[in-house]
Amino acid sequence: MASKSSSDSREPVNEQIILNTYANMRSEINQIYSKITELEMEVSEHSLVIGAIQPLDPSRRCYRTVGGVLVERTIKEVVPAVQRNKEGLEEVIARLNEALESKKKEISEFELKYKIKIKKADSETKEDPNLKEGSAQGVLVGPAS
């Protein structure tokens, strides 16, 4: 009897638990997507900074934020640090992409196992044309007088 209860704790029992688990998985995927996008923007900013300061005189002063504190350095000191940060961000993005792929695989297996089908919003409006008429909002503007 104990073995039966332990197997039940691993497997979702009812439809609501399955839907909650699925929603949590989708939420995790969306969080990973948003984090990847955020980090890609940071990589882009790092590239812009490197491109802007690299051709300048290496002994020239520049300022860099380190741990929330603005620090004065030379370009010669800053460029390698910014490049290391950029490379670190790219590694994190690569790991997040791997995690994203494994989550996608996990969610597709979950969909197959529990026969989950997602309805699209477009299919609902095609099925009931009256919904489309009532939901349209807009303002008609005539020619200027």
Number of domains: 1
The number of helices is 5
Output the CATH topology: Helix Hairpins
Order of strands across the main sheet? 1-2
Named at the architecture level, the CATH assignment is Orthogonal Bundle
| Mean of all residue-level pLDDT scores | 84
Q: Strand content of the residues, in percent? A: 5-15%
How can the largest sheet be summarized? 2 strands, antiparallel
Family: Belongs to the prefoldin subunit beta family.
Keywords: Chaperone, Coiled coil
GO molecular function: protein folding chaperone; unfolded protein binding
GO biological process, one term: response to cold
What does this structure look like?
The protein is mostly helical and 145 residues long. The chain has one domain: Helix Hairpins (Orthogonal Bundle). Helices cover 70% and strands 8% of the residues. It is built from 5 helices and 2 strands, in the order ααββααα. The chain has helices at 2-10, 15-53, 75-114, 121-127, 129-135, and strands spanning 61-66, 69-74. It has a two-stranded antiparallel sheet with strand order 1-2. The radius of gyration is 26 Å and the shape is elongated. The termini are far apart.
